[in-house]
Amino acid sequence: MTHYAAPVEEMRFVLEHVADFASVRALPGCGDVTSDLVTAILEQAGRFGTDVLAPINQNGDTKGAVFDAGGVRTPEGFAEAYRQFVEGEWNGLPFAAEFGGQNLPWVLHTAVQEIWHAANMSFGLCPMLTQGAIDLLLAHASPEQKNLFLPRLVSGEWTGTMNLTESQAGSDLSRIRTRALPVAGASGTYRLIGQKIFITYGEHDMAENIIHLVLARLPETPPGVRGISLFIVPKFLVAADGTLARRNDVWCSSLEHKLGIRASPTAAMSLGDDDGAVGYLVGEAHHGLEYMFTMMNNARLAVGLEGVAIAERAYQQARAYARERIQGRSLRSGSGSEAVPIIHHPDIRRMLMTMKALIEAARGLAYYTAAWIDIARRHPVPSVRAEADSRVALLTPIVKAWSTDIGMEVANLGIQVHGGTGFIETTGAAQHLRDARIAAIYEGTNGIQANDLVSRKVLRDGGAGARLMIAEMNAALSAPAEKTLPPLRAGLRDALAALARATDWLVETKDPVAAQAGAVPYLHLFGLTLGGFMFARAVRAMKGLRAAGGNGAFLSAKVVTARFYAERLLPQTTSLLAAVMAGAESVMALPEEDF
């Protein structure tokens, strides 16, 4: 497996010119986040990713996490890497100083998080879920719960998990059976009994305590998701002064043997084998799934970022191989010439350019969305916060699903660039594809994300949010000072027209089956169009940066990549529109027994 280097120059460019970091810097609490500070944080994070996380990635995949008598051992180097992660205060970057965080913008945290996932996706899952747990508790926990649990979660001394899934309750959480029985004389305290599966970092040896956030049912609750409540279930109970008390009755019963992310322990958890796992109700009873969506939406954006990150790692490895692998002669040099690196060959170039263009589009969208999160959380005007929150809600399923599909596509192309050596595990190219595969599944499959986009984000408001996004993109292209290169402007206008037609068709159709049959192509159509818009925002900055003496090679590469995206990828929006408008007839026509 080749060296990983965080693309700091690219990240800085996207933050400043695609995510519009100036608008974030203008928000309360962000004025001191200078360009120099951003660069310093990214460079330091890049060194940690390169020097600490990346070197243990392949061995972690080979050895995997090990279950042993109720405990879990992470692969060699993981516990030490996590100790350094905590000492570096990386876990608390975006969180309030009140609980020990650094109160930095979420969009900057997003760029740093990309580095963790690219360097070592299995490692990055642990802080990712802890940060989601922090977000949930900040939004919904009582003041006493916040003061007891948040300081150590923010520091990273303790880690967090999300306990939703049961064997009979995967995407359909209404089927949850885990029970929560009230403890007499202890208001808000319950004993939980049940089984949970697929719990990422449900047990490990990297932190002294694990704070499980568990969905369960109270006695005599209404059926379906309305009867679900949320509980804090610590691995070790915590005394009022914050010290650890006795071991709670929550145990890992086994680990899953997985296709990828093998160093990340995916645990089956048993609650209440003895006297019941002590848990503390979060918020009001019967609102558990509503609260959990705070963590789930955080995780969905972070998983979308995993797609960007693993794609970047696969691209860097494929690029390095293509530069050094000597094979075949250049078509431009004649039959008598010497063999050349395969990066000279058109099809290798096509694959590398596809990888590069998709990564840059998806990264731009992820950072752009994260900047809207900062506006939604920090802007002083409530109506602006509400508008930003609606924009984040619209973009979240696209970031999650489109970016993770890109992660798989790019990792697959990475193997193809390697040829036969890519199929051999020792090169490491195959690991990227195996690791990337889960991201399209967990935190809501990509099909569920597409259904969410269509049913909840587009149809629920009659297409208003989607049409507003389309109108803003069209307006940006029509601005008098617009500097977008002609192929991108033309391709993006066609894509926007296709997206508008698809949106109108979905809003006007009265058949929910037809809408869901077209949901995935609609999401891809939206993602590709947004990707083009991200390139338009990037190209717009070129003239000023060149005049200011910016890196000429970097800026020229950005323009070439934007043109490739416009000419090679944006045309796919035409066929995606046709797929959306084809309806459900051919999807649903075949009798079940004929499959």
- Classified in CATH, the superfamily of one domain is Acyl-CoA dehydrogenase/oxidase, N-terminal domain
Count of individual beta strands: 14
Q: Tell me the name of the CATH class of one domain.
A: Mainly Alpha
The DSSP helix count reads 21
Helix content: 55-70%
Quick description:
The mean pLDDT is 96. The chain has 21 helices and 14 strands. The protein has helices at 8-18, 21-25, 35-53, 57-63, 78-87, 106-119, 121-140, 143-155, 288-324, 346-378, 382-418, 429-437, 446-459, 464-478, 486-508, 512-517, 519-540, 542-547, 552-569, 572-581, 585-588; strands at 66-68, 71-73, 158-163, 179-182, 189-200, 209-217, 228-234, 236-238, 244-247, 250-255, 266-271, 277-281, 326-329, 339-341.
Can you put this structure into words, describing what you see?
The protein has 595 residues and is an alpha+beta fold. Among the domains are: 8-155, Butyryl-Coa Dehydrogenase, subunit A, domain 1; 159-286, Beta Barrel (Butyryl-CoA Dehydrogenase, subunit A, domain 2), CATH 2.40.110; 462-589. The protein is built from 21 helices and 14 strands. The strands form 4 sheets. Strands 3, 4, 5, 6, 7, 10, 11 and 12 form an 8-stranded mixed β-sheet that branches. Strands 1-2 form a two-stranded antiparallel sheet. Helix 1 (8-18) crosses helix 10, helix 11 (382-418) packs antiparallel against helix 12 (429-437) and helix 11 (382-418) crosses helix 17 (519-540). The longest helix has 37 residues, at 288-324.
